[in-house]
Amino acid sequence: MKFIQKPYVIIGSGIAGLYTAIKLSEKTDKEILLITKSDLRESNSRYAQGGIVGVLPENTEDSVELHVRDTVKAGAGLTDAGVARFISEKSAGSIMDLISYGVEFDKHADQKVELTLEGAHSVNRILHAGGDATGRSIELALSNRVENNPKIHIYRKTQAVDLLVDSENNCKGVIVFNKTRGEYETVFSSAVIIATGGAGQVYSRTTNPQIATGDGIALAYRAGATIQNMEFVQFHPTALDFEEKGSRFLISESVRGEGAVLKTPDRKQFAFKYHEKGDLAPRDVVTRAIFFEMREQGFDNVILDTSVIPEEKLRIRFPNIMKVCEEHGIDITKGNIPVSPAAHYIMGGIKTTVKGETSLQGLYAVGEASCTSFHGANRLASNSLLECVVVANELAQFLSEKQTEISALSSDCQIGCLISLYEKNKFEYKRDIQTLKNTLRETMWEKAGIVRNKDGLNRALQTLNDLKLDFNQPYKCRDPEEYEFRSLLIISELIIRSALMRKESRGGHFRSDFPKASPEADNSYISRDSAFIAGNCCDRF
Ligand code: FAD
Ligand code: SIN
């Protein structure tokens, strides 16, 4: 095992990780190591379509108050209004920053920025780029900057596999696996920043790419950090009803924002039966409306009718959606896009402040892997990218003002024991991970998905326990796929246990056996018992 020291280690190269790296490099002279398990530009961020919220001073219809009100309402009692205000107030500045980094948001002919509408927003306040390629535009601008920054050192195709936590519960670094060289390395650091994104791959139907296996949340949980609100998963109403490489292409909510309507395959509108805002009701409401229509009427999908949007507008606003639909033989100018819900975003994650501080010293989290209480029980569309950039900036500022002290702590008993587990080869037999993964993802979709109940959740827990027995690889794994499966098992357990604990329905969490919200709204927390056995801390492992 190779050992190195770096003042800052950022895990993940989505918008949260890239933005943190850039901001840190502007605020300090210290070296930054950015680790990413795939290509630099592969992330959930890259696929973001609808856009990013900006409460802009020139938008006279909008205000911080209105954005906070919409965010809090969507959050169904669990959004922290103070956090929402803090992030909303910083949104205009963050947009200006992104523009200065080279992001070109779409503009009208008079050069005013275009603002679109998505579900549960009171006014048009969403900026977009490249029509429906906002994530790709931002990710490209930020990654180009990171690649040309001498202070930022990049480890590509390198997977974080465990966090180093000392006997006093301080995070001191991370063990990583270089997939190209097949080598492990221990990085000691004064600040480990998790920016590993979401966990959509835990479900068999998801808009998230294959990298979204919840690794960072799983690592933080293993390390003893507090994890919040894992029962709150957002299922997007409209994923294209085809699967490719384990994921479903998203048909952005902004398509409905521009006028498209949902219909049953026999061409009946239904969304207004479920909510006064109809097709633009909060995401969880539209998702359940589609789920119930499909289940009660036996449809495999519903239809998004885009024919009401003028062809020219479709071409300019949704070039990417048009292209992908064409590849599947669908002409969106005629309407008729087959869509169904899919797991999209996790509101829960590593509990943090708006500066990215977790419950462990030395460990920080930002972006979808974190839970700042901004999204509450249900995230408002396009608030995620905003949270990524605002919190990344706050975190960089906080860290730049903090003393950095790195100590090579392999002498700490607990850290030494953990490292030694990654130095030995102790494998039983090669498992068929793809089959285990399919069983897990299908079980999660069926039993811990859009509509849950006690029986189903308990059955999911049973399947999970069987899979855990079969897999039984808590530390060093044979290959990256096994590490991802280890993460998926942990995330599934966190979701199921949190969903069992919450005996009510709220936001993204719906229990058919407790269909109403209980009067008291509260967050849920889970953490692993981090106590180790005094005298021989290796007993912990
Ligand atoms: P990600 O962008 O997911 O990046 C995570 C990074 O961590 C990746 O580089 C990954 O390779 C790396 N990583 C993961 N595990 C490890 C590990 N163990 N070791 C090393 N590296 C690791 N939100 C909006 O606000 N507006 C939108 O329009 C929008 N549209 C969306 C459309 C789609 C199809 C999807 C899937 C999501 C969308 N979202 C949108 C949500 C939003 O894109 C994400 O929440 C956000 O981009 C998350 O950014 P992130 O930087 O936290 O994580
Ligand atoms: C979308 O474009 O529908 C996704 C937006 C989001 O998830 O915020």
Q: Specify the CATH class of the domain at 241-341.
A: Alpha Beta
Which segments are poorly predicted (pLDDT under 50) over 5 or more consecutive residues? 530-535
CATH topology of the domain at 241-341: Flavocytochrome C3, Chain A, domain 1
Total DSSP E strands: 17
Shape category: globular
Ions, cofactors and other bound molecules: flavin-adenine dinucleotide, succinic acid
Q: For the record, what is the CATH homologous superfamily label of the domain at 241-341?
A: Succinate dehydrogenase/fumarate reductase flavoprotein, catalytic domain
Distance between the ends? 19 Å
Protein model, in words:
The chain is an alpha/beta fold. Among the domains are: 241-341, Succinate dehydrogenase/fumarate reductase flavoprotein, catalytic domain (Flavocytochrome C3, Chain A, domain 1, Alpha-Beta Complex); 426-526, Fumarate reductase/succinate dehydrogenase flavoprotein-like, C-terminal domain (Methane Monooxygenase Hydroxylase, Chain G, domain 1, Up-down Bundle), CATH 1.20.58.100. It has 15 helices and 17 strands. The protein has helices at residues 15-27, 64-74, 81-89, 91-100, 134-147, 215-223, 253-257, 283-297, 311-317, 319-327, 383-400, 413-423, 433-447, 454-471, 480-501; strands spanning 2-11, 32-35, 52-53, 126-127, 152-155, 158-165, 171-178, 183-194, 227-228, 233-240, 261-263, 302-305, 337-346, 349-351, 363-365, 370-371, 525-526. The strands form four sheets. Strands 1, 2, 5, 6, 7, 8 and 15 form a seven-stranded mixed sheet that branches. A hairpin with a 4-residue loop joins β7 (171-178) and β8. α6 (215-223) packs across α15. It is globular and about 65 Å long. The two termini are 19 Å apart. 54% of the residues are buried. Succinic acid is lined by residues 49-50, 250, 252-254, 345, 381-382, 384.
